[in-house]
Every structure is written in structure tokens, then in C-alpha cells.
Write a structure and sequence with these properties.
Length: 480
């Protein structure tokens, strides 16, 4: 169990449910047989039918998408730059708590047609941005615990929202996003950019066309050594990311690995997750780093006695139809960057990271040669890559995937198409964090995963990979 049990309960949103399996069983074992965790029976399992199914929903077309941005630290400006390159996008408002961040974001727009109003200096200045009538879409790139409150407020004020990853940090927040999106019929997209990386898109289309046969098992991860950034006074605002790592133990950042795999497995769209188990080892890196820094800098003294998250977390998920997923998270050990993308099917497999993407077919015990992979790319590359891939690579941003995602989101809004990642995806991919925390705190016991679609998963259609409309969103210029 974590040292600070009360903080843990508050952070995971499991307060009032009881973390110990026994207490959960006692309180919520009423109406489900063979349930050995009870979480699905918690107040957070809203058993009623969806208010409205947002999967496949198309909001009224917006000829021009009027945007506002909250959170302009490291990540927010990346979306801002992409948006400034698109035709039929207006940037009407910028908000960050810190005035210098708003001003440097404004500088990025110098010489453009955008003249946004600035909001800064107060912790709730963002509310004024959400209340403006001349904004259709709010981008949120703030610390994790602000994502859901900001998104709820924006949706309630008639805005679509694009939230950075993860969309929520507690089970309850995940449900609030789902219910509010359904009630307001506003899109709530979690901007999982890894779904738009090139090998991930290629393998998604290949899986869709049956290349891998039945999908048996997938693996994903976020293994990225950002220890120095986490402890830097100049990276994350108010050391928010260090604080998250000091109070929670589980997979805090599951969505990069999970998103592309869920699309490949058609999770929420013909398939659903059933339960997970999660294990963390000890912390070998963060506590030692905090103590070392505290020795020469009083600023770090409050961080020196914290119980830090186990460096490596491994979470395993079983789906309704008996397939499995393994997701890992380690952002503090000296590893080679790896966002594992492994697909194992009845006819073939694929693997990317830490080496470049490779594909194999069943009769071979070897990877296909480079020329063969090139010809598969020609055959299976989805429309978005054919139409915007080269442009995206020129613009850059994680190799172009950020631009593909931002372009596609605006293009869907303008053409009355459903967004690729809906609120059920945002909730499900994010809920893995608090559920993994529960499992880690309970000796890796299994915990059921809520069905945010409340049954609609069985008839929801898979993400559409085709782009057949003519009114493609144009790009203004590509400089810097
Ligand atoms: N998808 C990706 O590849 C990717 C990459 C990096 C970060 N992210 C995500 O982006 C988000 C932001 O991360 P970051 O690295 O930019 O963090 P950051 O700390 O650099 O930026 C967060 C910004 O939020 C501002 N902020 C804090 N409280 C605020 C308030 N009340 N009102 C308005 N602004 C407020 C801070 O001043 C800061 O500028 C996180 O969710 C992170 O997980 C995603």
C-alpha cells in the first residue's frame, strides 16, 4: 500500500469505495455474480443506458473552426503552431496562468491573421475563455488534474474539447467526461497523437484488411527516460509531473501505447476490455535523485522523503473475447526510447520499438525484408497518409503525427465527420491509470474495467480509415 493512503484514494477517485477487496465486496456485491473485485458495481459504474451514443456522432459542420487554447507550456504551443498553418481555423483566445507563456505563444502568431485575446494571471482565467461565444473548440494542455475540470466547463459552455493525454486521472472523472459529452453532444477528444504515427496507421489498416488474421495479443508502452525533466525546475510548471510520480503508483501514462492498439483491436467498437492486473517494482531512481538534489538545494527538501512510484509498471488486460494486451510504463530509468507497438495475430505479427517497424508472416520465423515492407506500405497505407503524410513530415512534430492528428481533427469538424477518438476512448484509455493503481496497491489483484459505452461497444462501428470527401482542409504555408 502507498504510505499516503488518503491521498491515494483521493487521486484515484476510489475514495468511498474501499480499496481493500473485502470492503468493496461487502458494499457492492449485490447484483453481479462471480465478481471478485466489485469495482464495476461501484457508484462509478453507471448502469443506465447512455444518454446518447457519441460513438460515430457527427456534430453540425463548422465551415471555420474557431479555437481557444488553455495551457501554453511545452505542449500547448505545438498544437497552436499546427492550427496556425491550417486554413479555415481562427485562433481567438490564448490562456495560461503565466503571462510570459501567453506572450510567447502570441509571438508565434505574429504576422498572421490571428489576433487572439489573452487570458492570464489567475487560476480561473480559463473560464472566461470557455464562456466566449466565438469559440467552437478548446484545446487543453495543462497539468493532468486540470484536464477534466476544464473540459467539463468548456463542454457545458457549448464547446468541443481536445484534451491532452491522459484525459482524466480518476475513475469518477472518466465518467464525468462521458456523461457530459453525451448530455451536451460536444466532442471530447483526447489527443492521442500516437494513433497517427505512420507505422501505427499502416498496421491499423493492415489489421483491418485481415493481414494479421485474428488479433491474439498486443503490447504497447511508454518507456522514455525523462528523469532530468521531471526534476527540472524549468520544465513542468510547479513540478506537477514530479508531484504525480510522488503520490501514485501504477501506469500513469498508458495512452500512448494503448491508443493505437485499441484501434487495432476495435475496442469500444466490436470488442471491449474485461479486466486488468498490474504490477510495479520498486523505485530505484526517483527517491535517490530527490535525496541527492535536496543535499545541495533546499528547494528539493520537500521531495526527499516521498514514496515514489515503482519505476517500471506492467499492466495486463484481458478482453471480452479472450485477447490480451500488455502495457508498460517507465519514464525514469536509463532506457532507449520505446513505445512498443507489437501485434500478434493468427497469420502474422508486427513490432516497432526500440528498433524500426518490422512485419512477419506466419510461415516465416523472420522479419520480412525491407523491400517487402515497402511494397506493403504502398498497398496498405491509409488515405490520410496518402493525402497529408508528406506535408505532415515537413511540418514535423513527433515526426509528423501531431500534424496529422490536428489536421484530421479540424477536417472532421469542417466536414461533419465523427472524430477518430471519441469520449469513450478518452475515458477508457485514461481509466487504466487509476485501475492499475488499485491493482498495484492490492498485490496485483484483478480489477474489472468499466464499459463506458454501456453496451454500445457491440454495435459501434470501427474508426473509418477512408477519406472520400473533396473539401480537404487546406494548409496555409509551411515555415518553421
Ligand atoms: N501527446 C504528447 O506527445 C504530449 C507531449 C508532452 C506533453 N503532453 C501532455 O500535455 C500536457 C501539458 O504538458 P506540458 O509538458 O506542456 O506541461 P507544462 O507544465 O510545460 O505546461 C502546462 C501549462 O499549464 C499552465 N497552467 C497551470 N495551471 C493553469 C491554470 N489554472 N490555468 C491556465 N494555465 C495553467 C502552466 O502555466 C503551464 O504553462 C500534459 O497533459 C502532458 O501529459 C503530451
Amino acid at each position: 500500500m502507498p504510505n499516503d493512503r488518503r491521498s491515494f484514494l483521493k487521486l484515484t477517485g476510489l475514495a468511498g469505495i474501499g480499496v481493500g477487496t473485502g470492503s468493496i465486496l461487502k458494499r457492492f456485491s449485490g447484483n453481479r455474480e462471480n465478481d471478485d473485485t466489485g469495482l464495476l458495481l461501484s457508484p462509478y459504474e453507471r448502469s443506465k443506458s447512455p444518454e446518447f451514443n457519441m460513438c460515430g456522432y457527427t456534430a453540425p459542420k463548422l465551415e471555420t473552426v474557431r479555437t481557444g487554447f488553455i495551457g501554453l507550456g511545452q505542449r500547448g504551443p505545438a498544437h497552436l503552431k499546427n492550427m496556425s498553418k491550417l486554413e479555415n481555423v481562427e485562433i481567438n483566445a490564448l490562456c495560461d496562468l503565466r503571462p510570459d507563456k501567453v506572450q510567447s505563444a502570441q509571438k508565434l502568431l505574429e504576422g498572421s491573421t490571428h489576433h487572439p485575446t489573452l487570458y492570464t494571471g489567475q487560476t480561473d482565467a480559463w473560464k472566461k475563455l470557455c464562456e466566449r461565444p466565438d469559440i467552437d473548440l478548446v484545446f487543453i494542455a495543462t497539468p493532468w488534474d486540470l484536464h477534466t475540470p476544464m473540459a467539463l466547463y468548456a463542454m457545458k459552455h457549448g464547446k468541443h474539447v481536445c484534451i491532452e493525454v491522459p484525459a482524466a486521472v480518476t475513475v469518477d472523472e472518466c465518467w464525468q467526461l462521458v456523461e457530459t459529452s453525451e448530455q451536451t453532444r460536444k466532442y471530447c477528444m483526447m489527443m492521442e497523437n500516437c494513433c497517427y504515427d505512420f507505422f501505427e496507421l499502416l498496421t491499423l489498416n493492415m489489421a483491418r484488411q485481415g493481414f494479421f488474421g485474428e488479433i491474439i495479443h498486443c503490447e504497447g508502452s511508454y518507456i522514455h527516460n525523462i528523469l532530468e525533466e521531471i526534476f527540472s525546475k524549468h520544465a513542468y510548471w510547479d513540478m506537477w509531473r514530479l508531484r504525480q510520480n510522488a503520490h501514485r503508483d501504477g501506469n500513469l501514462y498508458p495512452t500512448h501505447g494503448l491508443g493505437p492498439l485499441c484501434q487495432i483491436m476495435n475496442i469500444n467498437r466490436g470488442e471491449k476490455m474485461d479486466h486488468l492486473i498490474s504490477m510495479s517494482g520498486n523505485d530505484f531512481m526517483m527517491g535517490a535523485k530527490a535525496k541527492a538534489l535536496a543535499g545541495s538545494d533546499d528547494f528539493f527538501k520537500p521531495f526527499a522523503d516521498k514514496h515514489y512510484r515503482g519505476n517500471m509498471n506492467t499492466t495486463c488486460i484481458r478482453t471480452h473475447t479472450g485477447r490480451t494486451l500488455m502495457i508498460q510504463h517507465d519514464v525514469t530509468s536509463p532506457n532507449i526510447y520505446s513505445r512498443i507497438h507489437k501485434i500478434s495475430g493468427t497469420k502474422g505479427s508486427a513490432l516497432k520499438y526500440p528498433l524500426p517497424g518490422r512485419i512477419s508472416i506466419s510461415s516465416d520465423d523472420e522479419w520480412l525484408p525491407e523491400e517487402k515492407i515497402e511494397s506493403l506500405k504502398q498497398k496498405y497505407q491509409p488515405d490520410i497518409v496518402n493525402k497529408v503524410g508528406e506535408l505532415a513530415k515537413q511540418v514535423g512534430g513527433h515526426g509528423g503525427m501531431d500534424f496529422l492528428m490536428d489536421w484530421r481533427t479540424i477536417d472532421c469538424l469542417r466536414n461533419g465527420l465523427p472524430l477518430d477518438e471519441d469520449v469513450y476512448d478518452a475515458a477508457l484509455w485514461s481509466v487504466i491509470s487509476p485501475l492499475s493503481e488499485w491493482s498495484v496497491a492490492n498485490k496485483s489483484k484483478a480489477i474489472n474495467i468499466p464499459d463506458f459505452t454501456r453496451g454500445a461497444w457491440s454495435t459501434n462501428e470501427p474508426v473509418d480509415l477512408t477519406i472520400s470527401h473533396k473539401n480537404l482542409t487546406a494548409v496555409r504555408q509551411i515555415q518553421g
